[in-house]
Design goal:
The structure holds two protein chains of two kinds.
Chain A: H1 13-29, E1 51-54, H2 64-68, E2 74-83, E3 93-104, H3 113-117, E4 123-126, E5 140-141, H4 143-148, H5 167-173, H6 225-232
Antiparallel strand pairs in A: 1-4, 2-3, 3-5
Chain B: H1 7-39, H2 56-66, H3 77-97, E1 99-101, E2 104-105, H4 112-133, H5 137-168, H6 173-178, H7 184-187, H8 189-202, H9 227-251, H10 261-286, H11 292-320
Antiparallel strand pairs in B: 1-2
Helix pairs in contact in B: 1-9, 1-10, 2-9, 3-4, 3-9, 4-5, 5-8, 5-11, 8-11, 9-10
The chains are: A alpha+beta, B mainly alpha.
């Protein structure tokens, strides 16, 4: 414990014995390291990979996640539905409707590739990890169960200071941006971002949870810049 | 003990010492659980009994009772069954001898010092018997180590106790504690150190637990034991800690001497004994095991000469009238 003593030179038997007593006594007076897990919830690191949550509304059944999954633990079934034209003489539109979205957590290796691959922000990491089962088959999480994890998904971390606005926000902002209307004071709820960069208008991204838009969300501690950039790109 | 004591009083005293015998070792054991855990950065038992695992040892006892009573095929059946009792009962006798309160020990005999030394010596024999009766090579090696222990460490214990007896001019533990003076703390200090070290060895507590060294001898003489008999051995170990801590408190730390000793003398005895027990636990956590030959070397080349020197010093002190 005392870093003063150099290793290699034996301190002699009596100082050694005293040293042992002092070390144990000092450890006894400090708080112990035991995590009282079932009684006290652990403090997980940010972006913990507990379980994958599905936001069904965002899913277009594009199957990218299922194809990218290294152990093929995602099963997706969908059918097409025709949406009649809203205007007379317009064209009917088709859209995919998700029937089945199942992740087999008995197979999943928590690589997160599906979440990275999803172009529509339908999959999210949730830090919840307490879904052990007595039966292996119960580790198949269907659409509803995956949806059920959504409330446990933490808000995305705040952007770095003076970072570029997220691509989605920038795209949404571009046509609406006036020539000289600096609206820097609008987003007072998100500290930590200095500079006069135009913020996304409120309510713009609220219907669809947009990954990486730090503006609408509570601010989380700033992470390592490199990891941050990877996630934003 | 006067023979005028009524049967009722005898029964009461017997029940009292039995109650202490069954509760104080558990207190020491629980302290060891918790203190050792915290010294290692852990919490120790937290569940049994609800509040910080206070009933852990009770739960352990309940577990031990339910276990199967295994008797090795080649074991000496009678001795094997007898060994836990040999280890346990002498400490019960010794506990009854320890002075607790001014003028109060459960058994007050004129030569209680001698009886005490004999009782604790017999208690250590329990391991020897257990190791021999188990018909197991690890148990036998452990038992032989225990025997070597016994021979080496009985002498320092006897000599250091004799020093106090010489200083107090009595062979009665009660009288010795009565005559204890604060300056004995310094005068009898070498003897006190010798006794504490030798008591650790006598109890086969770390760092002197070579007879039951679990890394090399499985569990030494306890290897073949399980269930209730093993629990009795454990109880004997912790009862031994209680007895020798209380004796150390009585002879070297003044026992009941302290403020308001007429009313709360027994509290002082118990507190001092508890402090000694904590030191014994602390030493176990902090220090590594001493090798069997180092152990003999320490006994014969350090402790015995030191105890003899203490005896000489005490003799000089008595003659000079300190």
């Amino acid at each position: 414990m005392s870093g003063a003593r150099k290793r290699g030179r034996a301190p002699g038997i009596l100082p050694g014995l005293v040293h042992g007593l002092v070390t144990t006594a000092r450890t006894a007076l400090r708080p112990s390291h035991t995590a009282e897990y079932p009684d006290v919830a652990p403090t997980l690191p940010p972006r913990s990979r507990g379980v994958i949550a599905l936001l069904e509304e965002n899913c277009t059944s594009c199957m990218l996640c299922a194809r990218e999954c290294p152990d093929w633990c995602i099963v997706i079934e969908s059918h097409k539905e025709t949406i009649p034209a809203t205007t007379p003489g317009g064209r009917d539109r088709q859209r995919n409707v998700l029937d089945t979205f199942t992740i087999d957590f008995g197979l999943c290796m928590y690589c997160g590739i599906c979440i990275e691959a999803c172009p529509f922000d339908a999959l999210f990491w949730s830090p919840q990890f307490e879904y052990a089962e007595y039966d292996l088959r119960d580790l198949l999480h269907d659409k509803e169960r995956l949806r059920g994890w959504m409330p446990t998904v933490p808000p995305p971390p705040a952007l770095d200071e003076r970072s570029a606005p997220p691509a989605e926000v920038a795209a949404a902002n571009r046509p609406a941006r006036p020539a000289a209307g600096a609206a820097a004071g609008a987003g007072a709820g998100a500290p930590g971002r200095a500079g006069g960069a135009a913020r996304p208008a409120r309510g713009d991204g609220a219907e669809r949870p947009v990954r990486g838009s730090g503006a609408e969300r509570p601010v989380r501690p700033v992470r390592a810049p490199r990891a941050r950039r990877e996630e934003d790109s | 003990m006067t023979l005028t004591m009524s049967w009722l009083e005898i029964a009461l005293r017997a029940v009292a010492v039995l109650a202490a015998f069954l509760s104080l070792p558990l207190l020491v054991g629980q302290t060891e659980h918790k203190l050792m855990a915290h010294m290692q950065g852990r919490l120790g038992p937290m569940y049994a009994g609800g509040y910080h695992g206070w009933a852990q040892l009770v739960a352990d006892g309940a577990k031990f009772v339910q276990k199967e009573d295994v008797l090795p095929a080649r074991a000496d059946r009678r001795l094997y069954r007898l060994a836990p009792a040999i280890a346990l009962i002498p400490y019960l006798v010794a506990l009854a001898l320890v002075p607790i309160h001014p003028g109060v020990a459960v058994i007050d005999v004129p030569a209680s010092v001698v009886l005490f030394v004999v009782a604790t010596g017999v208690g250590a024999l329990g391991l020897l018997v257990a190791g021999w009766a188990s018909a197991n090579k690890y148990a036998l090696i452990g038992a032989l180590r225990a025997a070597a222990h016994l021979v080496a460490y009985e002498l320092p214990i006897v000599l250091s106790i004799a020093s106090v007896a010489l200083a107090g001019g009595s062979l009665s533990l009660l009288t010795l504690t009565q005559r204890w003076q604060p300056h004995w703390l310094l005068w009898q200090l070498p003897g006190a150190c010798v006794f504490l070290i030798a008591a650790l060895a006598e109890l086969q507590r770390p760092p002197f637990d070579a007879p039951v060294a679990d890394a090399e001898l499985v569990m030494g003489p306890w290897t073949e034991y399980g269930g209730l008999r093993f629990a009795f051995f454990l109880l004997a170990e912790y009862a031994g800690i209680v007895v020798l801590s209380l004796l150390f408190a009585a002879l070297w730390l003044g026992g009941w001497h302290g403020p308001f000793s007429d009313q709360v003398g027994w509290v002082w005895t118990l507190l001092k004994g508890y402090a000694v027990a904590v030191v014994i636990i602390w030493v176990r956590v902090a220090w590594p095991r001493v090798r069997a030959d180092q152990l003999q070397r320490l006994a014969w080349l350090v402790l015995v000469p030191l105890a003899l020197a203490q005896l000489a010093l005490t003799g000089v002190g008595v003659v000079m009238g300190w």
